[in-house]
Amino acid sequence: MNKIFLIIRREYLSRVRKKSFIVMTILGPLLIGGIFAATFLLNKVDTEKHTIVVLDNTHLFANKFKSDERLNFIYLDQNLDSLRSQSKELGYFAVLYIPAIEKLELLEKSVTLYSETQPSIEIISKIKFSLEKEINAAKYVAAGIDEKKLNSIKTEVDIKTRDLQNKETNSDFITGIGFAAGLMIYMFIFIYGAMVMRGVMEEKMSRIVEVIISSVKPFQLMMGKIIGVAMVGLTQFLLWVILSTAVISFVTARFMGDKTNEEKIEQMAKVNGNVQSMNQFSSAMNQMNNAPANKLSVILEGINFPLIIVTFIFYFLGGYLLYSALFAAIGSAVDSETDTQQFMLPVTIPLILGYIASVSVINNPTGAVAFWFSIIPLTSPIVMMVRIPFGVPGWQIGLSMGLLILGFIFTTWLAGKIYRTGILMYGKKVSYGELAKWIRYKN
């Protein structure tokens, strides 16, 4: 056991002292913050204003298209063909043609926007929203309906969700927590599992491993490398979380610190390039403004964070240990990066399948797909973490954890059989049949 600790210490210190580790640990959060800031800066720098000519033969939309910092609408009453031919020379971006059609149902399909270049989604969305609003208003008048009365009797149902202990819950918030936890585990296993594989390959090809195994057993070397890289990954992950939070908080305060809630949402809508998002968020804003100050704290109280944190750490490490043993076995069996492809596919398919299944699990966290995928060790680290925030019976969590431990023991035993033979095997193309022979070898 002491030798395993020595290998863990060697793996950990040798990797965290590398310039690449230090650079990426600092650069990662800075890149995230840079991307976040770039969305605001680019939106601020992009001040080009487009002029759109409105040719409205119906006269229903006079002054209904509102100009803003990006779009300028002007109304002309000229020949369509003349406007189209002269629009470029006169500096017009587009011509919006609304033909004179009596039936509003036909007008909906008859509006045309002429432009030299393809208009953006933002421009089309803004025009579409204004058209739909005025056409609906005209329909109300034609049908003898008072629009104000209609709006006054519209019903918006706000369903509050609570658990059986009467604690308030929030499905969107819970879904976000579960999916984020599953995604982090998925990425961690892929990134650091591959790091284990490359580390084994480098030592094998440099022949350093021949010296090392003269003092330690191959199994001890494999376990020390797996755990050492896991500690490196956890260190980098925690630093990324802390630094990314600090960077994003700074960027948000820098660009949006002095804005009201409405201005923040408007800014985010512009950054996302979706004009209609401001209208979509209006009801959410009203709820936010009318909600009590401790609304978020009440929602958070309904989430079992201690359970989520404990299970996240368990599945975070359990999933990594299970897969990294297989990655280590692949690294010991091959002589080059290209040779790993045939063995990587069977290992990564369950991971990818678990990630894909997460989408179905979010929609039905208590269904058969959710149950079985959260029990099977190869997919449970991702899928169970998606389910946990929704509430999972204790016996299912216990069964899943027990099977994951057994799965780790089995894959470690399997990988150890391959590792002890493959780590000293050079210059030979390994097949699945050859791996099966190595597994059957007796000590």
Draw up the topology in text.
Layout: H1 2-16, H2 19-45, E1 50-56, E2 71-75, H3 80-86, E3 94-98, H4 104-107, E4 112-115, H5 121-142, H6 147-153, E5 161-162, E6 168-169, H7 171-205, H8 208-212, H9 218-256, H10 261-272, H11 276-280, H12 282-290, H13 295-301, H14 305-333, H15 341-363, H16 368-375, H17 380-387, H18 394-422, H19 432-440
Parallel strand pairs: 1-2, 1-3
Antiparallel strand pairs: 3-4, 5-6
What portion of the residues fall into strands of 2 or more residues? 5-15%
Average of pLDDT: 78
Topology, number of strands: 6
**Ends: how far apart?**
20 Å
Key attributes of the depicted protein:
443 residues, mainly alpha, D-Maltodextrin-Binding Protein, domain 2, 2 domains, 4-stranded mixed β-sheet, two-stranded antiparallel sheet, 19 helices, elongated
Walk me through this protein's architecture.
The protein is mostly helical. It folds into two domains: 50-147, 3-Layer(aba) Sandwich (D-Maltodextrin-Binding Protein, domain 2), CATH 3.40.190; 171-245 and 300-440, no CATH class. 68% of the residues lie in helices and 6% in strands. It is built from 19 helices and six strands. The chain has helices at 2-16, 19-45, 80-86, 104-107, 121-142, 147-153, 171-205, 208-212, 218-256, 261-272, 276-280, 282-290, 295-301, 305-333, 341-363, 368-375, 380-387, 394-422, 432-440, and strands spanning 50-56, 71-75, 94-98, 112-115, 161-162, 168-169. It has a four-stranded mixed sheet, covered by helices on one side. A two-stranded antiparallel sheet has the order 5-6. The radius of gyration is 30 Å and the shape is elongated.
